[in-house]
Amino acid sequence: MAGVGGGNDFQWCFAQVKGAIDEDVAEADIISTVEFNYSGDLLATGDKGGRVVIFQREQESKNRPHSRGEYNVYSTFQSHEPEFDYLKSLEIEEKINKIRWLPQQNAAHSLLSTNDKTIKLWKISERDKKAEGYNLKEEDGRLRDPFRITSLRVPVLQPMDLMVEASPRRIFANAHTYHINSISVNSDHETYLSADDLRINLWHLEITDRSFNIVDIKPANMEELTEVITAAECHPNQCNVFVYSSSKGTIRLCDMRAAALCDRHTKFFEEPEDPSSRSFFSEIISSISDVKFSHSGRYMMTRDYLSVKVWDLNMENRPVETYQVHEYLRSKLCSLYENDCIFDKFECCWNGTDSAIMTGSYNNFFRMFDRNTRKDITLEASRESSKPRGILKPRKVCTGGKRKKDEISVDSLDFNKKILHTAWHPKENVIAVAATNNLYIFQDKIN
User: Fold this and answer.
1) CB atoms closer than 10 angstroms to residue 428
2) What is the pLDDT of residue 1?
3) What digits encode the pLDDT tens for the residues 364-396?
4) Cα–Cα distance between 289 and 419 in angstroms, integer?
5) Per 3-state DSSP, what percentage of the chain is helix, strand, and coil (rounded to 5)?
6) Which of 130, 216, 261, 419 is the most buried (most CB within 10 A)?
């Protein structure tokens, strides 16, 4: 797989955009999660209105054999509804926090979706035939008079227009006191974990009425609370290993073989802080917003406010790679604190071969880093610069002095436009980028 762009590497080009063009964006339409399935043929998004939209990749057409198929809407369904917790007098938002696909076992597809409190397992299946010729009911569904049935009919299957059905197979509820921030399917494909601010639970996909609490960092006295869990993920090929990150910038790796309750970690990853760079904002910007294992399982990547770090699981004292995402914002932390942007939770993702990583920034910019060449590129997801098959121009931010023609000043960045959620196709150079209520899909340029 090629690198991230620039020089002799391939270039990224615009493929398509999904979403409304309206300037006034409804809160419910804002995309809150993006996820490719294991093959990359399906792409799911969740939004703040509790909806899940699944896009399916079209097959290559015979007229254009070298063109890759576009992603078109395959299924849309309401996953979660707003609820009210009468005991605590709290509204439970319908917003979809995370979507995770399960490996495909048969013709149907399955995914987990979660809001703040409830996880649901959905089955997405196709139906292109319907049964006709029932004995006890008419075609319109009315029951027939049993005394008028004089002969026995054998129902037959008749072709019909393709219908995609989404049905909830399991509902995993009432296990989290705090807001769920992560779900992760285990490599055994039978269990998954869910994490909230203070606890991590292990579930079996077939059992909804109980889960095992495997991490609990809640202190006896809540006034002594110093950190919260921010993200958690299962190892891609060792079903007994998982990691979770904290608001203090640390990552703990746990092994479920050691104990049923993994309060004692097996490994503790933390980078020593440089005392000279300490400021009022140090603790806030060191909070980890996302953690992802590499596909190989050898590395993990963490995203904090200003940087992405790659850790070797065999080295706990410091990351092996650090990539600055938007270092030019360090001088703007005070205003970012005042407008609450400093608390934004950016996600990160690997490409299929673990050779490149991607994460988002402000002004609808997103960043890509090539781990082999150490090159990086800043691209923009916007309708203005998105011509069909048009090559994306790298963007540069000017931090001071004289601004060049193609550069944008750090003072003119739009902090309301932010790329929090991105996904990379597991096998190809196709990426999905969520920008408010629009989903942009880019791919490497084909000659």
Assistant:
1) 15
2) 43
3) 999 999 999 999 999 999 887 777 778 888 899
4) 13
5) 10, 40, 50
6) 419
- CA quadruple 100, 104, 105, 111: dihedral sign: positive
CA-CA distance, 331 to 343, in Å (whole number)?
Answer: 16
- CA distances 306 to 219, 390, 435, Å, are 30, 30, 19
Q: Containing H/E element for 43?
A: strand 42-47
User: What is the band of 171 on the pLDDT scale with cuts at 50, 70, 90?
Assistant: very high
- Contact by Cβ (8 Å): 289, 230: yes
d(CA 169, CA 207): 11
What's the one-letter identity of residue 364? Answer: N
Give CA separation, 437 vs 20, 25, 29, 106, in Å: 7, 7, 5, 32
Residue-wise pLDDT for 304-363, tens only, equals 999 999 999 999 999 999 999 999 999 999 999 999 999 999 999 999 999 999 999 999
Q: Which pair of tokens denotes residue 99?
A: 């979507």
Residue 447: predicted pLDDT: 45
Vertex 36: Cα angle to 31 and 42 (nearest 5): 100
Q: What is the pTM of this model?
A: 0.88
| DSSP assignment letter at 81 | -
Q: Which two tokens stand for residue 60?
A: 């290559």
Kindly report each contact of residues 312-318 with a partner whose C-beta sits within 8 Å and lies 24 or more positions away, as own/partner.
313/253, 313/267, 316/267, 316/268, 316/269, 316/270, 317/270, 317/271, 317/272, 318/271, 318/272
Contact yes or no for 367/6 (Cβ under 8 A): no
